[in-house]
Amino acid sequence: MRREKVYTVQFIGGPFDGHVQAVRIRPCDLAKLVALPVSREIFQTLSGDRPAPETLVTSEALYQLESTRNSPCYRFLKAIAPVATQTGS
Hints:
Strand content: 35-45%
Oligomer: single chain
Number of strands: 5
Number of helices: 1
Strand order of the largest sheet: 2-1-5-4-3
Shape: globular
Largest sheet: 5 strands, mixed
Helix content: under 10%
Number of domains: 1
């Protein structure tokens, strides 16, 4: 059985500063820009302990991919107000 390679991506700055996330995506295939919801429970969600944040999303953190010799990292760009979603008709 072939095992998938696991890579790590570090977040620099902003609310996720210092967080290291394991990914099964090759560094060259990572998104150049990511928006992550910020809530009190988001780290439990990222670690797999919780399926989705149950508390209110307070903002979205925008991160841009930077390639380094050692490993890729996402650098904080800015925080924005969460995108409102409409429910119902």
